[in-house]
Amino acid sequence: MLIRQAPSSGCDQRSAKARKISPRERSRTMPALDAQHAGILASAGVIASYLKHFNDPKAEFGFAAVWVVGPTVPRCLSVGD
């Protein structure tokens, strides 16, 4: 996957996850993208690009929070507000 495609892929994944979970359960769910082996996805630049092109997934889908979990603590980032 090209880095410029990462934000679109993230949106697709969260949308698919949201459709499988009832709205009531979403408010207590915190999906996380495992970026253990693709640490570049857990960067402020990729997350900023995602938020520039797509809505905040927490607000859009009603999740409690959305995280990208990278290979180190500094690479564990919340997506959106």
Q: Care to describe what's here?
A:
The chain is an alpha+beta fold. The chain is 42% helix and 11% strand. The protein is built from four helices and three strands, in the order ααβααββ. The protein has a three-stranded mixed β-sheet, with no helix packed on it.
Could you tell me the number of beta strands?
3
Distance between the termini: 26 Å
Summing up helix and strand content along with how strands pair, one would put the structural category as alpha+beta
Mean pLDDT, rounded to whole units?
83
The profile of the biggest β sheet is: 3 strands, mixed
Helix tally?
4
What is the topology?
Layout: H1 6-20, H2 23-26, E1 32-34, H3 44-53, H4 57-61, E2 67-69, E3 76-78
Parallel strand pairs: 1-2
Antiparallel strand pairs: 2-3
Name the descriptors.
81 residues, alpha+beta, 3-stranded mixed sheet, 4 helices, globular
In short:
Helix content is 42%, strand content 11%.
